[in-house]
Amino acid sequence: MQNILIIGAASAIAEATARLFAAQGANMFLMARSQERLSGIAGDLKVRGAGSVRTASLDANDIDAHQAALDAAYTSMGRFDVVLVAYGTLGDQKKCEADPDEALRELQTNAMSTVSLLSRLANIMERQGSGTLAVISSVAGDRGRPANYVYGASKAAVTAFCEGLRSRLYRKGVHVLTVKPGMVDSPMTEGMELPAALLAKPEEVARDIVEAIRRKQDVLYTPWYWRFVMMGIIHLPVKVFKRLSL
Amino acid sequence: MKISGWGRYPVVDAQVAYPKTPGGLDDALRACPEGAIARGLGRSYGDSSLGGNMISTRWLDHMLAFDEETGLLHCEAGVTLNGILEVFAPRGWFLPVTPGTRFVTVGGAIASDVHGKNHHVAGCFCDHVGFIDLALEPGRTLRCSPHENPELFRATCGGMGLTGIIRSASIRLKPVGSLLIDQVTYKSPNLRESLELFALHESSPYSVAWIDCISGGESLGRSLLMTGDHAPEGEPEKGSRTSRIDLPVDLPSALLNRYSIKAFNTLYYHRIRAKSVVSRLYYEPFFYPLDSIGGWNRMYGSNGFTQYQFVVPKEGGYPAMDAILKEIVASGRGSFLAVLKAFGRRNANLLSFPVEGFTLALDFKVEKELFPLLDRLDAMVLGYGGRLYLTKDSRMSAESFRRGYPDWERFQAVREAYGAKGRFISQQSKRVGLD
User: Fold this and answer.
1) A195: pLDDT confidence band, cut at 50, 70 and 90?
2) Which residues on chain A are in Cβ contact (under 8 Å) with B64?
3) Which chain A residue shows the shortest CA-CA distance from B247?
């Protein structure tokens, strides 16, 4: 059975993905901040068919704790077949504009801490010589938009980092998947006025992720139409783009 | 935010809380001292889950325990029937009772005490519930079951969320030999024969009829009765596993008029030529034919629709159905497909809808002229000793409710005794006098 490590296991996308792996009988190691959330999710995954489920509380911003947490998980599992990095915050853009420290905190949570975790995971996986690193970035990282460019900048960093990592690890038999979800109906977007027709369910995104891991896809836009939406947005000339309030 | 039930009528402006943990539910309750109502997947048609303050169980959807020996599943209220089937159907377990959609939560199924095609042999959903953990106020949760706080259990099952917020419940799943259903479809030319067919097939585990509510005269009440049972094993017929499509936009409501609906009903009735047809299919198209069209509620246009479902007692059932159906046919407002079903005996739950007799459910698109017709139908249904289903309702009067549900005073007494009165209220409960 597959060994799956999930960092940010309490996120809606991560939990939906974990349920699909549980149905396949996978062994899971879950990390998230809240022990209350972790124990609820672990119990649920066991009923759904997971082989074994272990948990550890981890705050991604506690960089000093990263290495020990990953080493403990690796020792406990013996091998990582899939690592899913799925945490993040969708910060308040207006607050970031008014308070530069807030902007830096956003970058810390969504980019710096991810760089720390991925660098350490890359070394573990490189030694192991197999497995998949699946990282949730965002369509927001494809272009800086006035509505959320702080979040977008952090995800752009994750996307570029993963692209380089993919080439580095490719020769070592490790696969890197960059996941770029569009708008997802989850606690992250709760209270935002978003068009219902463009709002994907976490379950749909999860199915796409599991399939992309299986097929060793490099970059996944999910749901699929975001690939075309973003293709259009990426190719807009700056002269036009700067006039739009996207 | 603006929010509605499945019928998209009425629409209310509400504060909706989405607690993510059991503790979060206490916080949400604490934040609404003026009263709140639980919301699951929003599949009740009218205003049962609507109110100024709503608490969604969407993220409280964890499975807690499963006993492989007995089939007893303990899960949080936000777990959906679809979620249960995805996990357990491949392992040979099935829902003891399921309504016509699998997109409802366990909490909602209990609050509505839903029924299915096997009501005549298996009763309602809550007849298979072991216990319920009910949040009565912040920090106070009581377990109720047929043996523990039984009066609270009888009020909570079918109680429309008005006794508290269901945190979790245990359900007895049933073992099945395969995921297939052996179905027989019988054709009936008129109402009398349609009702007789139910009696004839009362030993079939599942039975339901699609009935034509447009044609009058000699064809009044013509129907297709479908009976079914879980196949012991085997393969389905080709093409019986339906794919899913979505209806992403509102259709113009003028598309549904008496001509298009009549054409559809005629085609549907003549779908089979023989007197009866045998087939073997996956359970999905048998139990959930409409689930394959995501957002089918948009078919009735942007004003929304109401589903009118009533039951009349078995005694005098034929003349009652005959008179009511004639009224519907004369109005020309009948819908696409109406569903007819014979219920078995009622259970002891105070507000559960089913009583032994016949139930008819049909959709009407919402327009001004509809409401006088529904008021006339109400008077007929109540006159024949029947009642309306709260889960589908968006407009019945307090007087109609009290006549149809004589146990309402006992229900109120239980709410009073457990401090639920005023704490759990919906737009519907205020309208029907359960405040």
Assistant:
1) confident
2) 43-44, 47
3) A197
A35-94 residue pLDDT tens? 999 999 999 999 999 999 999 999 999 999 999 999 999 999 999 999 999 999 998 999
Assess whether pLDDT exceeds 80 at residue B251.
Answer: no
Nearest-Cα residue of chain A relative to residue B90: A23
Contact at CB, B87 and A48, closer than 8 angstroms: yes
Interface of A with B (CB under 8 A): 10, 12, 23, 34, 36-37, 40-41, 43-44, 47-49, 187, 190, 197
Cβ A36–B66 below 8 Å, yes or no?
Answer: no
- Rg over CA atoms, chain B: 21
Binary contact (B63, A48; C-beta < 8 A): yes
Output the 3-class SS for B282-345.
EHHHHHCHHHHEECHHHHHCCCCEEEEEEEEECCCHHHHHHHHHHHHHHHCCCCCCEEEEEECC
| A245 torsion bin: left (phi>0), alpha (psi -120 to 50), beta (else) | beta
Which residues of A fall within a CB distance of 8 Å from B59?
Answer: 12, 187
pLDDT in tens, A79-97: 999 999 999 999 899 999 9
Query: B18–A187: do the CB atoms touch at under 8 Å?
Result: yes
A12 contact residues in B (CB cutoff 8 A): 59
Chain B residue with CA closest to A22: the answer is B87
Whether A151 is catalytic: yes
In 3D space, the residue among B431, B391, B423, B354 whose CA is nearest the CA of residue B163 turns out to be B423
A40 with B22: Cβ contact below 8 A: yes
CATH T-level topology, domain A3-241:
Rossmann fold (3.40.50)
Amino acid identity at B400 = S
CB contact under 8 A, B62 and A34: no
On the CB side of A4, how many CA atoms lie within 13 Å of its CA? 32
pLDDT tens-place string over residues B337-378: 799 999 999 999 999 999 999 999 999 988 888 999 999 999
Alpha-carbon distance A137 to A180, whole Å? 5
Instruction: Enter the ipTM.
Output: 0.91
Give the model confidence (pLDDT) of A22-34 as tens digits: 999 999 999 999 9
Three-class HEC string of A84-151? EECCCCCCCHHHHHHCHHHHHHHHHHHHHHHHHHHHHHHHHHHHHCCCEEEEECCHHHCCCCCCCHHH
Domains of chain B as residue ranges with CATH: 63-176 (3.30.465.10), 180-395 (3.30.70.2520)
